[in-house]
Structure formats: C-alpha cells, structure tokens
Amino acid sequence: MNYDVILIGGGAAGFFTALNIARLNPSLKIAILERGKDFLTKVKVSGGGRCNVTHGCFDPKELTQFYPRGEKELLGPFHQFCSGDTIEWFAQYGVELKMEQDGRMFPITDSSQTIIDCFLNLANKWKIDLISSCSVTGLFQKENSWKIDTIKGSYQASKIVLATGSNPKMWQLIEDLGHDIVAPVPSLFTFNIKDKRIKDLMGVAQLADVSVVSTKLQAQGPVLITHWGMSGPGILRLSAWGARILEQKQYNFTIEINWQPQHDYDTMLKVLQELKIEHARKNVIKRCFVDMPNRLWESLVLYCDISKDATWAELNNKQLSKLVKELTQGQYLVNGKSTFKDEFVTAGGIDLKQINFKTMQSKVLSNLYFAGEVINIDAITGGFNFQNAWTTGFIAARSIVEEFNK
Q1: What are the tens digits of pLDDT across the range 202-251?
Q2: In whole angstroms, what is the distance from residue 2 CA to residue 30 CA?
Q3: How far is the C-alpha of 122 from the C-alpha of 282, rounded, in Å?
Q4: Taking Cα atoms as reference points, which of 16, 79, 88, 12 lies closest to residue 51?
Q5: What whole-number distance in Å separates Cα of residue 6 and Cα of residue 2?
Q6: N or C terminus of the chain: which is more exposed, having fewer CB within 10 Å?
Q7: How many angstroms separate the Cα of 325 from the Cα of each of 223, 259, 264, 286, 307?
Q8: For 368, which DSSP code?
Q9: Quick check: 359 pLDDT over 90?
Q10: Whole-angstrom distance between the N-terminal and C-terminal Cα of the chain?
C-alpha cells in the first residue's frame, strides 16, 4: 500500500508528528505503524497514569538545562515550539492543562486517557491509518520513495518518520542505513541501597543535595526512601546526568547526602551547638529541631551512638561531630539500580550530528525524519521527555508539509 508519509512508532512522538502533518495538509495520505497491539502505551502509564504532558518552563534557554543529552541541539527547536505552544496546541483541541507546584503540567482530568482520546479522535477525524501489531523488518530507500517491509507485508511512502523510541531492533536497521548509534544505557533509575540508617523508613522524603563520591556528579531535589533504597527527583536527576558514568561503574558506587542542603558541615555544627545550649535538658531523639522528618532524625541519632534517653547537655563532642556529619555528609553504598516505575528512559540513540535540527531530517539520507527518543536526547522527569517529543514532532511535521507544498 502506498502513502505520502508513514510514521514508524505509535507513541507520543509518532502520533504528534502524524497529527500535525494532517493538520497542516489534510490531503496527505498518512499511516502510523506500531509494533505493539496498542498505541500510546507510554502515554497511558506516564505520570502515574495522569500523563505529565509538559513543564511550566517557558524560556527555551532555561528549558534546555533539563536535558543531559540534547541541550545545545534543542535550543533552536524550542524557539520554534516550546512549552507554551504545547499548552495552546492541546487547548485548541479541547484538552486543558494545569500546572502543579513543582511546574509539572497535567490534563485537568488527571487522566492520561484524556490525551489518548484526543489523539485517537483527531487521527480518526483526519483519516490517519493506524496499523498495530506491525513490526518493521526492513527499510529500503528507492529513488523517490521508501519501501517498508513488515510482518504484515510491505508499504511504500514518499517520506518516513522514525519515532520508535529506544527500540534496539530499529536502531540496528537505522545503523544499517548508514547512521551512527550512540550505545544505549539506562537513564532514569533509582538506587538500590541496603543500610540500617534507612531501614524501615519507606515513604520518608527529604530535600537533599546528593553527589557521587569521586566524581563531579551532583543534584538537588527531594529524596524518597523506598523499600529497595532511594528514589525521588534528587536521585533521578543524578541518574540522568550520570547515566554513562554510573553504567561504567556497573552501578556500584558511593553517594554522599546532605540532608540539610541549606547548611554545610561548619554551619550545621554551629546550629547543633546552639541547640545543645538552648535545649540542654530536652531529649535529643524525641524532638527534631532541624528541618527533616522525625523518623529520619531518630534513625540518624541512634546511628551516632546516642541513646534514646540522652539529653542535649549529655552529648559529647564526638557524638555531636558524628551527628553533623550524618546530617551533611552521610555516605551510602549503592549496589545496583531499579527502573523508575514504567517510565523507562534511555540515554543513547541516533548521533545528533547526523540530524538537521531545523527540519529533523537525516543528514545521511533524504526523506527520512526523526522524532522523540529515537535520537540521543533524554531529560529528567517532569514532562521534559514529552516536550522533546512534541517539539521534534512538530518541526518534522512542518518540514515534511513544506516539502510537499513546494
């Protein structure tokens, strides 16, 4: 079957590209090929089923700072289609977004199904063919078109868009076509830590500075203690920026945590020395006078060989110093990682040097475009990976339509 454009990959980037092509030129014949039986599966599970559509950061330069890979390349594209444009796009098709305190933006329904329904309804309205359970087995460039072999037969298209995310089989096909693939490694993941200081503290969260010992890697954000170790934005950001370094360490390394990011060792020591004077007769463990959850405070106090009955006046200098160190320089051994829920993100993909970011077209082959995570771009959590999908998809769509309109 012949099409003007075929999108390979029925996720966020593939759908958004297809919809924008149809919106800009409804006369084009478009199909989306998806290897799974369902479309938009990652959209469905993202944000705990609420779909973190984008982030309330509206300055292109500032927005690029959330991308460990792709920061430089995305600056131009974000000037063309940024977070504000995403909000307007969805509003135009009946989906209103809301911003939460941390800047993340969700549909006001708090349901990812709202986004899925919007996309499917528009695809039906614009007569985009949706072909599921259709794994691609071969890509061949002809003189003025592409031939796509699949388990359901062959298709032809004037132009194709690859929006296949982190699919190793598709990367291999792309590599066979002459592109360079940056080897994939996990990006967003949590840390496996077995340590008596955090045992039985599941659910406790605290803003903290986290760094990887003997590296320059550091991040700040809420750290969530889990039954397997540590998670939360602070840990996930560190995993994103350290994706390649931590993979080289085989996910065995030591992190240092400052549970009091507004203090260093010296200023925290002064705080505790003042508490020792002001609350001399009060029990150390029973009331936490610093900004942190009581359960975490109690655990660190006990770890510093301070008895449950000890008063502030009874603390000796050694105990005080150890407590300060645990609050500002506590070290924890990481032994392995865990994938962050269902929102798996990979660092790796098509080499950025081989893509024209003004059009999202391959510099290696004509009439071949890319969108989303199939290229070597990834971000921290907070709606940034979806914004990459919307932006690159929009630019690819506009470029393709301009080519057809010539």
Answers
A1: 999 999 999 999 999 999 999 999 999 999 999 999 999 999 999 999 99
A2: 9
A3: 65
A4: 12
A5: 9
A6: C
A7: 18, 10, 9, 20, 18
A8: E
A9: yes
A10: 24
**pLDDT value, residue 301:** 97
Per-residue confidence (pLDDT) for residue 345, from 0 to 100: 81
Distance between CA atoms of 374 and 385, rounded to whole angstroms? 12
> CB under 8 Å to 27, separation ≥6 — which residues?
none
- Cα–Cα dist 103/342, whole Å: 21
As given in the structure block, the two tokens for residue 334 are 């990481």
Contact (CB, 8 A) for 164 and 346: no
* Inter-residue contact 297 to 290 (CB < 8 Å): yes
Residue 132 is given by DSSP the state -
The distance of Cα 179 from the centroid of its chain, to the nearest Å, equals 25
Q: How far is residue 370 CA from its own chain's centroid?
A: 19
Q: Which helix (H) or strand (E) holds 158?
A: strand 153-162
CA atoms within 13 A on the CB side of 381: 26
CB-based contacts of 404, cutoff 8 Å, min separation 6 = 4, 25, 28, 158
The residues near 365 (Cβ < 8 Å, ≥ 6 apart) are 141, 177, 178
Q: By the 8 A CB rule, do 381 and 52 touch?
A: yes
- In angstroms, rounded to a whole number, what is the distance separating the alpha carbons of residues 130 and 152? 13
pTM of the model: 0.89
d(CA 212, CA 230): 14
How is residue 88 written in tokens?
């307007």
Both tokens assigned to 137: 């087995």
Burial 294-305 (b: 16+ CB within 10 A, else e): ebbbbbbbeebe
The size of the chain, in residues, is 406
Supply the pLDDT for residue 340. Answer: 55
Supply the DSSP symbol for 378.
B
Burial degree of 406 (CB within 10 A; 0-12, 13-18, 19+):
exposed
Largest CA distance in the chain: 86
